Amino acid sequence: MKSKIILFLVTFLVWCFLSWVPDFQHIIIGIVISAFVVFMMGDLFIGTPQLINQPQRYWYFIVDYVPVFLWECFKANLDVAYRVLHPRLPIKPGIVKAKTKLKTDAGLTFLANSITLTPGTMSVDIDKDNGCLYVHWINVKDADVKGATETIVRRFERILERIFE
Amino acid sequence: MIDVIGLIFITVGLIFDFFGCLGLIRLPDVYNRLQASTKCVTLGTCGILFGTFLIIGFTAAGIKALLCIIFLILTAPVAAHAIARGAHRSGVNLCKDSIIDKYAQDKEGESVNETT
User: Fold this and answer.
1) Which residues in chain B touch residue A144, judged by CB atoms under 8 angstroms apart?
2) Which of A3, A30, A142, B111 could form a disulfide with A147 if both were Cys (CB 3.0 to 4.6 A apart)?
3) What is the chain B residue with the closest CA to A98?
């Protein structure tokens, strides 16, 4: 029930932004459509509603995760620009395997997205039962599981553990 | 002043978009191309949208530009992930410079079971 209310608020907020500036008619239609979407989709999206009223998690998300993510994203772009502009294409690609300790769906999704947008790595598949990630790495420095885990996963895992677990 | 900052954001975004397209042409196989296009096009397009938001402010189009940034950052990596996984499962090999493919090693047993 709680996750349905939160989903309703989120969809209604997105609707308000989409139909900016909101007036009376837009808001009525938005309430009807949000209620319908929540009625159909129900509990699909928010798996752990007990974490939502813990304000320190939002604080960690804004202070720890977002600046690190933006900085890594910018570095990734400079990295790609360097590799593309270099006349001999300095790439050494391969798919490596990394372990993760995260369990929840939201945590794994954010971890995979962060890996894709950080320098030189892109997540290809997740094996949720064994806690493995298969990561395509454009410049393989360390082919065994332990080294790849240290280099790719650890930095974001430490932050995401405090937010989603 | 705010217009100039917006134009700088749009220019940087266009440059990164250009690098993404260049990577799409120059790099050898699907996975490397996906890397270049996903990273550069995500940040480049977000830069263009953010510059647009700075120039036109909190109007109907500006708010939509901000929403588009959030949806792009959330969905572009998922799309790349889906394309890479689909390509690997349908048998697209890595380019011949590749040094390791742990995914194929781990999936070998499974694909044999699927075909029999």
Assistant:
1) none
2) A142
3) B102
Residues in chain B: 116
Measured distance between the N- and C-terminal CA atoms of chain A, rounded to whole angstroms = 21
Contacts of B106 in chain A (CB under 8 A): 97, 134
Domain ranges across chain A: 2-49, 54-164
Tens-level pLDDT at each residue, chain B (116 residues): 889 999 999 999 999 999 989 888 888 888 888 888 888 888 999 999 999 999 998 888 899 999 999 999 889 999 999 999 888 888 888 877 777 777 777 776 555 444 43
The complex's ipTM works out to: 0.81
CA B87 to chain centre: 16
B105, two tokens: 């090693």
> Distances in Å between the alpha carbon of A41 and those of A7, A45, A110, B4, B108?
9, 8, 21, 44, 37
Is A122's CB within 8 Å of B35's CB?
A: yes
